[in-house]
């Protein structure tokens, strides 16, 4: 597999990770980097990944041939919960080989693949395997989504510390403005703190502000 797969995670569930993934894919494509998104494991759906549908709306592409081939949504489970529990409820173990084959095919067809996880880095994929350990095994660079809400600094620092301990490289810190926060003072200070943090601790990582573009 080419070294062009980037894993997207975030500080929590409902942090706008799918929105940020789509925005980055859109901007990378506009820069001439042929980019596609993939959902590692989709829960809460039955036939179509709602996150992939959101990606395509924001990217402005409509569904792609790879979506129809199921390469971008190799595993879908019906219950909206952590992948380990969703697989148990549906009585169907996660097929990691199937996911790997899909990712490899996308990697061969495109310049970059943004592989979006479910929830945060510590979300269990199985009873024995955490998302962060899967990322470390595959040696994927990390695109990490944070926000300006109260508590984001704490969650970001904990996640980055865990990432560093496992030897995962931070590629991009995406500061997501969607959904909009009510407290502008906290939002601006958090952004300043995150920018300073990257300059000190992760000078090779990129800081990207993800604006609110709308999702319709």
Compressed to H and E, one letter per element, the order equals EHEEHHEHHEHEHEHE
Principal-axis shape equals globular
Residues in helix, %: 40-55%
| Average pLDDT reading | 95
What does this structure look like?
This protein is an alpha/beta fold and 216 residues long. 41% of the residues lie in helices and 19% in strands. The protein has eight helices and eight strands; from the N terminus they run βαββααβααβαβαβαβ. The protein has helices at 17-30, 50-59, 65-68, 83-89, 96-109, 131-138, 152-165, 184-201, and strands at 5-10, 35-39, 42-43, 76-77, 112-120, 142-147, 170-176, 206-210. It has a six-stranded parallel β-sheet with strand order 2-5-1-6-7-8, sandwiched between helices. Strands 3-4 form a two-stranded parallel ribbon. Helix 1 (17-30) packs parallel to helix 2 (50-59). The radius of gyration is 16 Å and the shape is globular. The relative contact order is 0.19.
What's the topology here?
Blueprint: E1 5-10, H1 17-30, E2 35-39, E3 42-43, H2 50-59, H3 65-68, E4 76-77, H4 83-89, H5 96-109, E5 112-120, H6 131-138, E6 142-147, H7 152-165, E7 170-176, H8 184-201, E8 206-210
Parallel strand pairs: 1-5, 1-6, 2-5, 3-4, 6-7, 7-8
Helix pairs in contact: 1-2
Brief digest:
The chain has 216 residues and is α/β, with parallel strands linked by helices. The chain has helices at 17-30, 50-59, 65-68, 83-89, 96-109, 131-138, 152-165, 184-201, and strands spanning 5-10, 35-39, 42-43, 76-77, 112-120, 142-147, 170-176, 206-210.
């Amino acid at each position: 597999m080419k070294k062009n797969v980037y894993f997207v995670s975030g500080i929590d569930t409902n942090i706008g990770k799918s929105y940020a993934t789509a925005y980055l894919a859109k901007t990378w494509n506009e820069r001439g980097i042929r980019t596609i998104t993939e959902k590692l494991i989709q829960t809460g759906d039955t036939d179509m990944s709602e996150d992939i549908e959101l990606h395509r709306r924001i990217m402005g592409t409509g569904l792609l041939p790879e979506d129809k081939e199921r390469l971008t949504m190799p595993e879908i489970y019906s219950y909206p919960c952590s992948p380990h529990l969703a697989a148990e409820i549906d009585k169907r173990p996660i097929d990691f080989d199937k996911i790997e084959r899909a990712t490899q095919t996308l990697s061969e067809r495109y310049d970059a693949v943004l592989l979006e996880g479910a929830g945060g880095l510590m979300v269990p994929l199985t009873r024995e395997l955490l998302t962060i350990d899967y990322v470390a095994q595959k040696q994927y660079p990390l695109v990490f989504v944070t926000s300006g809400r109260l508590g984001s600094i704490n969650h970001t620092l904990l996640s980055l510390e865990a990432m560093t301990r496992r030897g995962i490289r931070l590629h991009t810190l995406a500061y997501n403005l969607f959904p909009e926060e009510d407290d502008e003072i906290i939002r601006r200070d958090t952004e300043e703190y995150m920018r300073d943090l990257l300059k000190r601790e992760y000078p090779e990582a990129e800081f990207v502000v993800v604006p609110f573009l709308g999702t319709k």
